[in-house]
Design a protein that fits this description.
The chain contains 18 helices and eleven strands. It is an alpha/beta fold.
Length: 397
């Protein structure tokens, strides 16, 4: 009962106050079954439209909290094998206010009797706002749109990286929980955050495509590197590993609290060459031709990260993207002069939207003829069972 009430409270904060589950669940009560809570919270958010479609035709106007209670119970009925139907319904009804229990019980029994209904409408089937599906279709074609939407309905896979400043692959490859993709990157079955290796900073949680972005940057020992939008510092740490902790890195972040996250990450993982700086990446502040490498992992709409942050699809509005595109342009322009001749700048996002990606780079190259494009790629989530990313590798002539 306690876990289900916590789940309902969390869902209400997500949908009524634009909260993010990953942040809300950091302060869960000690007696919460976190594995169960995470599964139901994320599963309900991820399948929200599909769950709503199972019962809305049988009900009139319903309070948000009651509706979410019905949705989370239906998720347990149809998506969780380990939860007996009678237990899910009984617990769901008991959480409803006394005056609504008869109504909730009737709805749940009717839905249970019908079984899961899968509609033809893709926006309901994939619980994805129509405008997002339309954007993907316009940018990548119908087949790719379907593949993206379907992949976003999967549970997020835990991927990570060995911190080569403190460990190497040989320490983990005999553990069946680790499946290595290359010398440092792996997938993990279980809760990596609960392992000693994670707590000691010998491994980090990092998406496979996120790791690919840093490899494109190709930093080398002794270089001077700018990570312009660095928090929480995972990519900064990977840069330091590739540099063998030799040289210097400016890890920049707008908010002081998040700058502190970078400092703690560097201390935990044994990085000595990174300086965390609280500064606005959209404001020019670095000397002309100061850096050998610049990484701009720009603020974005997050449409490639809907597995781990499924609530983005419900919080984001089309008009929000216009402001994001302006900010990205400001950040690119503000840091363009700071790269040395022959140096490499990598611009990346965790979104699937050409306006923020390909279009942003085309505009930048038109305005900055001193740059040339070396490589540009879109990393789709269905390709490597990872997040959707975009990355462009540019060189200053």
């Amino acid at each position: 009962m306690m876990s289900r009430k916590y789940i309902l409270d969390t869902l209400e904060k997500v949908f009524a106050r634009d909260g993010y589950a990953s942040l809300l669940m950091r302060s869960a009560p000690e007696n919460t079954d976190m594995a169960f809570a995470s599964e139901v919270v994320y599963g309900t958010i991820r399948n929200y439209s599909l769950l709503e479609a199972q019962w809305r035709q049988d009900a009139g106007k319903t309070k948000l909290r009651t509706a979410l209670l019905i949705d989370m119970t239906i998720y347990q009925l149809f998506f969780l094998d380990g939860v007996p139907a009678y237990a899910a319904v009984s617990e769901g009804v008991s959480l409803a206010p006394a005056r609504e229990r008869k109504f909730v019980n009737a709805i749940l029994r009717k839905v249970q009797g019908r079984g899961l209904q899968i509609p033809e409408d893709l926006s309901i089937r994939f619980s994805m706002p129509q405008w997002i599906l339309g954007l993907w279709k316009a940018h990548y074609g119908e087949e790719t749109m379907r593949q993206i939407a379907e992949s976003m309905q999967k549970r997020g896979v835990i991927s990570g990286r060995v911190n080569t400043l403190k460990a190497d692959r040989s320490e983990f490859e005999n553990d069946p929980a680790y499946t290595f993709v290359n010398d440092t990157a792996f997938r993990y079955s279980g809760s990596l955050q609960k392992t000693d290796a994670f707590r000691e900073g010998r491994v980090l949680i990092q998406d496979l495509h996120s790791q690919e972005v840093v490899r494109m940057l190709a930093p080398e020992a002794g270089m001077h590197v700018l990570d312009a939008c660095a928090a929480p510092g995972t990519k900064t740490q990977q840069i330091a590993c590739l540099m063998h902790d030799q040289g210097s890195i400016i890890a920049q972040e707008l908010y002081e609290a998040r700058t502190g996250l970078i400092r703690r990450q560097m201390e935990l993982t044994g990085v000595h060459i990174a300086e965390a700086v609280c500064a606005d990446a959209a404001e020019p502040r670095h000397q002309e031709k100061q850096f050998d490498r610049i990484l701009i992992d720009a603020p974005c709409s997050g449409l490639g990260d809907l597995r781990h942050k499924p609530e983005i699809r419900w919080h984001l509005k089309p008009e929000d993207i216009d402001a994001i595109v302006i900010l990205q342009k400001q950040i690119l322009d503000a840091n363009a002069a700071a790269l040395k001749e022959g140096g490499i700048l990598v611009y990346s996002t965790c979104t699937l939207n050409k306006k923020e990606n390909d279009g942003q780079i085309r505009r930048f190259l038109e305005d900055h003829t001193e740059y040339e494009l070396l490589e540009m790629k879109t990393l789709f989530p269905f390709e490597d069972d990872a997040d959707g990313f975009f990355a462009a590798k540019l060189r200053r002539k």
